[in-house]
Amino acid sequence: MTRRATRNNSNIKQRLYFRPILGCIVLTLLLISPHQSVVALSTTDAFRSVHDSAMKLVQFCIDPKAGLDDNAVAILADYVLSSKQTRERGLPKALECTGAYYEFDTKITFPRFIEYSYSPFIPPGITRPSSLRYSTWTAAPRGETQKLPTSWKPVPPAGIPVVIHGIEHDSNTPDLSTGVYHEYEMKRTLILLNHKGHQVLVSISKQIGTSKVGKKGFILGNDNDWSYYYSGESGSSITGLGWAKSYIYDYFSVSVNIELDTASTTVRTGVFQWLRAGWSGINFVREGHILGGMKRFGRDIKTILESSRLPAPNQMISVYQGLSNMPDGDLMKEYAALRQAQRSLAIQTGKISKSEGEEKISFANSSKDQMVEELMLENLKMTLGKSTLLGK
């Protein structure tokens, strides 16, 4: 989320994912389609303040010593709450990155939204399954990483914002068109505050350095099934593009999640996102690619959090703890069975050859957190009534 295909404006249409949402955005870079340019925001002073405010928060994420600009947060919150003719539009370029804005509403109370989306016991990939393979907060020098709170308490009017800084290691899912997926690290900042009586959770991300080279993967069945195959080999799974070495050069975003009112069962999410990615140092990202990825992200959030079959947070936490406390040997056995089932389905659907399927599966680079997160997703799929590879 090849250069020749890109320059010829191929007709391959692509749907990409968010950050959030990085996954499905970049992968399009190999086969950029003729998306029409989205409506660009005007360059009026009024909007310039919105853009500048977002960049101030990105800088705060990069360097917390810069200090939190309360006015910048207020400007973004007001913008997300404001009525608009369109909920998607382009943003001015920043730091050589292409940008876009997208917003959507989720029918859920703000406290529940926070419980599911920002819990140390419910991994991010569980609510963003077509975007993230896994996401873990990692140890960092100089105490840069803080733990997520087990319980978020509402901030009273005029209360002091709660600020959490962290380092996150992510891997996205295969792109809808190219099958490429990437791994990368990001600085993360979460800010919980009260804005004019509205509870607000601002999530800021800034990529650290360049991602690892893109690798080949496949979507197994429908993207809505959240089942994927990861080869571990660099390049693209598209015939003729196996040589392509794509990278995410830079990525940063500011996501504003805000309750519409204290009695509301709706949370509005507005995402300001910028991305620079491609190969040979060239940025091939267009506004439409970013928007496609954010829409994929929003679709998952709504599908899961608005489901009548969604288990209570404590039930999901119980699954997480059960898997985390499982003996390493048993956990590895469960995870190996899942990976083998993914491989078998990839062979059955002609994604990989039988000879490729006979190669030994390596778990050398698979952390325990990753295994827990992927197995936890399969459990959620069963609960929501979706097909799962577990037990097959």
Feature tags:
392 residues; alpha+beta; Alpha-D-Glucose-1,6-Bisphosphate, Chain A, domain 4; 9-stranded antiparallel sheet; 3-stranded antiparallel sheet
Would you give an account of this structure?
The structure is a single chain. The protein has helices at 3-7, 23-26, 45-62, 70-81, 110-117, 287-305, 313-324, 328-348, 354-357, 368-383; strands at residues 88-94, 97-107, 132-137, 162-172, 180-181, 183-195, 198-207, 215-219, 228-234, 247-259, 266-279, 282-283. Mean pLDDT is 86; it is low at 1-21 and 23-43. Helix 3 crosses helix 4 (70-81), helix 7 packs across helix 10 (368-383) and helix 8 crosses helix 10. It has a single domain (3-308), classed as 2-Layer Sandwich (Alpha-D-Glucose-1,6-Bisphosphate, Chain A, domain 4), CATH 3.30.530. The strands form two sheets. Strands 1, 2, 3, 4, 6, 7, 10, 11 and 12 form a nine-stranded antiparallel β-sheet that branches. Strands 5-8-9 form a three-stranded antiparallel β-sheet. The longest helix has 21 residues, at 328-348. With 392 residues, the chain is an alpha+beta fold. The chain is built from ten helices and twelve strands.
